[in-house]
Amino acid sequence: MATKTKAKDDTTHLPQTFEPRNPGMALDLDWVLGVHANRSAIERRAATLPGRRSVKKDHQAAWLCRAISCIDLTTLSGDDTEGRVRRLCAKARQPVRADILQELGMEGLTTGAVCVYHDMVPTAVRALEGSNIPVAAVSTGFPAGLSPFNLRVAEIHASVEAGAREIDIVISRRHVLQGNWQALYDEMRAFRAACGEAHVKAILATGELGTLKNVARASLVCMMAGADFIKTSTGKESVNATLPVSLVMIRAIRDYHQRTGVRVGYKPAGGISKAKDSLTYLALMKDELGDRWLQPDLFRFGASSLLGDIERQLEHHVTGRYSASHRHAIG
Ligand SMILES: O=C[C@H](O)COP(=O)(O)O
């Protein structure tokens, strides 16, 4: 090892809390229709984010460890196997080489959750036994959300019964595109009820919603209907998580908190694969919502390949050397 180093985390003073669930509220159409989004102002602000002076050295290592704790380590492929899911779960338990974590003073670090299709829930639950890492299941006809409504609800029940503690539902994009906010609200309400004790993340599939105004309104309606998290994308749209969309969704979360006192979580997902991008997202959360939203109960990355790059950066931080990326094939 080149240097004896610790990861310096500026937010360790925060209590490890678990946010109460979002109970939701009645649909307030005046509020929803009063929401607008100034695209050029949002894009200007978003363009400044990646160029900001980044945190360095031990602080950067701490932020990268924080990012790991917020990853929903994901595999959502047609060729998923039990073996791949078991390997992913082993990675979730031990996301970075033990000697590197020890050097950083971060022993015991895990990812925030493991995210899989329904058929893989029992395998993931078994593989994570004793770890307290939740299994998240994508549900409701993921990714398009176009299967019959009763089947989508039944899928949630089945995943919860199989042991998923978090359910990532997909909304019907057509309700947004047609401005049918009541239908979106009713759908989200029904999905939340089906989740029971499991936390529910509402995937908006923002790349298919047409406008930032639609993203803002859909975010608000899903929160009114009781979503515990709002999530950008399935990872399967042609445009997934972006910074402008994130700004819009994060500000909707802030408005909802200011008006109701309820904190809703945020999950950007799809195409986030670089350690540097994870730092940009964390800085954005801190700027717009404050330190409380840097905890895994209120912030997650949906990512299948981000962990590998973070691990390479941490290895470099500790040893002074980069390993080849193929050595970090999972995560
Ligand atoms: O919800 C998570 C996404 O499907 C992951 O997307 P990604 O494979 O682009 O990281």
TrEMBL record:
NCBIfam families: deoC (TIGR00126)
Biased composition (Basic and acidic residues): 1-12
Pathway membership: Carbohydrate degradation; 2-deoxy-D-ribose 1-phosphate degradation; D-glyceraldehyde 3-phosphate and acetaldehyde from 2-deoxy-alpha-D-ribose 1-phosphate: step 2/2
PANTHER family: DEOXYRIBOSE-PHOSPHATE ALDOLASE
Protein name (Swiss-Prot/TrEMBL): Deoxyribose-phosphate aldolase
UniProt keywords, alphabetically: Cytoplasm, Lyase, Schiff base
Protease listed as a keyword: no
Protein's organism: Marinovum algicola
Molecular function in Gene Ontology: deoxyribose-phosphate aldolase activity
Chief location bin: cytoplasm
Family, as annotated: Belongs to the DeoC/FbaB aldolase family. DeoC type 2 subfamily.
Catalytic reaction(s) noted: 2-deoxy-D-ribose 5-phosphate = D-glyceraldehyde 3-phosphate + acetaldehyde
EC number assigned by the record: 4.1.2.4
Compartment(s) where it occurs, according to its Swiss-Prot or TrEMBL record: Cytoplasmic granule
Keyword Cytoplasm tagged: yes
Region named Disordered: 1-21
InterPro entries from the UniProt entry: Aldolase_TIM, DeoC, DeoC/FbaB/LacD_aldolase
EC class: lyase
GO biological process: carbohydrate catabolic process; deoxyribonucleotide catabolic process
GO cellular component, one term: cytoplasm
